[in-house]
Amino acid sequence: MRYISTRSANTAGEGRRFCEILLEGLAPDGGLYLPEKYPRLDPQAIDRLQGVFQQKGYADLAYEILSLFIDDIPPEDLRSLCLKTYTAKTFGDDLIAPVRLLEPNLYIQALSNGPTLAFKDMAMQLLGNLFEYQLARSGQKLNILGATSGDTGSAAEYAMRGKRGVRVFMTSPKDRMSVFQQAQMFSLQDENIFNIAVEGVFDDCQDIVKSVSADLAFKSKFSIGTVNSINWARLLAQVVYYFAGYFQVISKSHSDLRVGSLVSFTVPSGNFGNVCAGHVAKMMGLPIDRLVVATNENDVLDEFFKTGIYKVRNAQNTHETSSPSMDISKASNFERFVFDLLDRDSVLTNQLFAQDVVAKGYFDLSKNKQFGDLRKRFGFVSGRSTHSDRLKTIQSVYKDYQQMIDPHTADGVKVAREYQTAPQNTSQTPSPMIVLETALPIKFASTIVEALGVEPVRPSQFNGIEALPRRVLNMPADVQRIKDYIEQQCAD
What is the pTM of this model? Predict the structure, then answer.
């Protein structure tokens, strides 16, 4: 399996292998890596994977899927890494990503039972083990530069803390995360973890990461890598739970579904990485009907899927909301999907993202022939949720089903319900819908209290976390200042 950049896929030269891009973020040309082609699974192959999941479990399913994309790690090593990562001890359940019925034809897939109580753990725990493995066999060291709107940071830091040969420099928007999210990150005292609170919004942090990655000399000298979902390995790990969710729904005893039946997913979305993994699963042949993109008030993705116009927002026009991990107005992973939408035309993709977005702040594909066939080809639809919607959804789920959900998952449930109850073009019942849970409610306690008047359950290991000493440096949104800080820490 070889990997290409979204911005130079049509240039001469062979693609790169998995371990050659594992420790990187952006490609040297500023694009994002994707496989030269997606592995295609026929119904028999998917049926076999269902058997693997049911008989052996999530870790073996992860190995089977990852091995389709990774051919430069020995199979026995790759399987050992999956078995080491996906354990009931780490994720709190033998199924790792269990699915539960919320209401008729609508399910929630629990992805937030890992060490930091957010879905980012599902990929980050594997990424930490992959990084450590590759660094050990290559003799390299790695300085990870990341950006977080709330959950990526803590998931990365908990996955990388104490790892040999790894430093983590994590940027986050100052005072824009929940108190719990800040405490999770800033209370870590590990010597290889460096937290940087940037005066700005998440997009400023993300721009810093991209700018540093684009400085190839600096990137090479200081061995800069990334754990954001621009890293292909992280997105690849997320593909697995779409298969696991699908297999659980079609095997429910009360269901007449079977392999080949269509299932839909609703995904709370900010940076487009989570739902892009669903896109990859669909391209592989998993029978996904709709991929529903659920946004909050920062609705650049909803606007695109409804109009064909992708218009980024600046910091002043990026709303601070009660689902803060989705307060993003530049969706990095969106470039991967647009590349596929445009039939992998890297010249046009480069023009849109490296020129039009930079110069004009937007691009318009509304009259593009590929956009006109978007729903049929790729299954994407979208919806939007507001603070009021979140509160009402949290309240209704708690009242009707005695389940507490976090604000981001509430965005997903609200939009999913709209698609499950909307008039259909046929008399057929809508396909079962799985909403991907993004975090546990304790991470956003103030919103839960506002909605329900009760405090969410706090896992005992996080008692008193907000009162712990903090280790964080406040800095302006200045690329050179960040570079100087990395250089200083690497010299010590």
Answer: 0.92
